């Protein structure tokens, strides 16, 4: 088993042009919508098969955050404003909690195997085997805005 997360920037098409159309549709949506000025909330693109959550929150210390993974959807995080650190780990190396199918939420307990720092335009694609801990501050807490596309698998 291996971690299959993909990290890049929406402006560098050569880093993501090989991806499936379902995933590149996320980047097209970012390009064609003024997402920075969209209100936080859920926006359906293709019903519950493909939608985006626009989120605003303040990053914080790692100890206040939690691990999660998903089984029904891929997460495509796209940073719209601010800087956020995200820890990543292997689901199969972690201790799982009870899966909540109605929320497609699997809580986990474990250790990071990688960390990325997201800046404006950066994206991170998390597959079902990718545990992730979001909203970690970089140098200090800051308010961020990002889009989290949910792509049904």
Can you tell me the number of structural domains?
1
CATH homologous superfamily name? YhcH/YjgK/YiaL
Largest sheet: 6 strands, antiparallel
CATH class descriptor name: Mainly Beta
Strand content: over 45%
**Gyration radius over CA:** 15 Å
Output the structural class. mainly beta
Order of helices and strands: EHEEEEEEEEEEE
Number of helices: 1
Strand element count: 12
CATH topology term: Jelly Rolls
Q: In CATH terms, what is the architecture? A: Sandwich
Estimate the helix proportion, in percent.
under 10%
Q: What spatial order of strands do you see in the largest sheet?
A: 1-10-5-12-3-2
| Spans of at least 5 consecutive residues with low confidence | none
Summed over residues and divided by their number, the pLDDT gives a mean of: 93
Beginning-to-end CA distance, first to last residue: 19 Å
Protein name: YhcH/YjgK/YiaL family protein
InterPro entries: NanQ/TabA/YiaL, NanQ/TabA/YiaL_sf
Pfam families: DUF386
